[in-house]
Amino acid sequence: MASADSLTLPDAPLFPRRTPAMPARGLTAPVRERLAACARAADAGGEPDLEAVALLRDSGLLGLALPYEYGGAGTDAEGLNAAVEQVARVNASAAIMLFQHYAVSRRVLEHGDAALRQRLLPRLAHGDWLAASAWSETGAGANKKQLSTTARRTPDGGWVLDGAKSFTTSAGVADVYLVLARTESAAPDAAPETGYGAAGQTFFLVQADNPGLEPDTSLRLTGMRGSATGFVSLHDCHVPDTARLGPVGAAASIIAGVRDSGATLGAVAVGLAQAALDLAHAHAERRGLLVQQAVRHRLVDLSTEVEAARAVVERAGRRSAADPGMATLHSKLFASAAADRVVAAVEQMLGSAGYVAAHEINRYGRDVRAVALMGPTNDLCKELVSLTWNS
């Protein structure tokens, strides 16, 4: 790890050139098998999936969201969604860690100054650093309106962060966190209402080795058990002003722009739905059930659900809708609901075979329900869509 102030140092190491790219037909079979084995082990033990993180670092996938000049692959949102779906099909916990890494990488690319981009993006692209978002906290609500985490100026022009974040994916595993903090009490009309975040909030990039940052992975989830989702506390956490992302007080506008990117957690849901459908096909073949018309037609119905969910996710990634942001929100709503229906239907098809605790369909069911609770939650997605009707 680099030192806590390495975001500002001029002696950036030279990185070996890798070519991060998604294979034409998706993940290679060995990577799929290893990620699947990791998912089974992490679900049983409930511990952060460190082996899956190592696989992501070595695979080149972490650099897909960044352009060639920083060592990335220059993949667009449609390609990123496809990569996340591929990973989610075998390991949903790894997929949401990957998704979060892409989200932070793109925010740094879009809102970081030249020096920050040069310092941070090559590390993120090459897999040397894994990025995480630390936005949520107890009492702030899904829309992050009432933050208790604060950032105050220091005489030397830097900042001191104090507060606690909850439900942070990759807690204790990430190398850098994008922390949302309250920096000022802005006037009510200081910024337009975005429905997510509030005026007077600012983003900071805090490295994991900062002595003022402490992760806690004691949280035990029902699903996504390998995602290292936990708490991050910030106490007397000093960062330089160069660690600030975007203007002071402008975090809400940065958040509002995220949905326009076309990257969507609906891709995780599609991967899980496809995994459940694959299980159903394998079960039907193994039991000789495909001779029954009713079974075949039921599988067709489920296949149609998966294809429809994939289509809305792909459309979000292409950003071809009249309002790309709305399409992204709709994609998460539709794909997560469709995946929930598909997994539930497959559970019924499996009968008593799926009632065994160790059966993978049970992990898929627990994982897919988590997607609806990830930010923006499905309820908040509905609110963000419907708020536009009042303008």
Topology:
Elements: H1 29-45, H2 50-59, H3 77-88, H4 92-111, H5 114-126, E1 131-134, E2 150-153, E3 159-168, E4 176-182, E5 201-207, E6 213-216, E7 230-239, E8 244-245, H6 251-258, H7 266-286, H8 293-318, H9 324-350, H10 360-371, H11 378-387
Parallel strand pairs: 1-4
Antiparallel strand pairs: 2-3, 3-7, 4-5, 5-8, 6-7
Order of strands, main sheet, comes to: 1-4-5-8
What's the rounded overall pLDDT mean? Answer: 90
Total strand segments: 8
Largest sheet: 4 strands, mixed
The helix fraction, in percent, is 40-55%
Output the helix-strand order. HHHHHEEEEEEEEHHHHHH
> What is the count of helical runs?
11
Q: Determine the N-to-C terminus distance.
A: 47 Å
Uncertain parts: 1-6, 8-21
Query: What class, by secondary structure content?
Result: alpha+beta
Question: What structural keywords apply?
Answer:
single chain; 391 residues; alpha+beta; four-stranded mixed β-sheet; four-stranded antiparallel β-sheet; disordered N terminus
Could you explain the architecture of this structure?
The structure is a single chain. This protein is α+β, with helices and mostly antiparallel strands. 45% of the residues lie in helices and 12% in strands. The protein is built from 11 helices and 8 strands. The strands form 2 sheets. It has a 4-stranded mixed sheet, covered by helices on one side. A hairpin with a 5-residue loop joins β2 and β3. α1 (29-45) runs antiparallel to α2 (50-59) and α3 packs across α7 (266-286). It is globular. The chain starts with 28 loop residues before the first helix and ends with a helix. Residues 1-6 and 8-21 have low confidence and may be disordered.
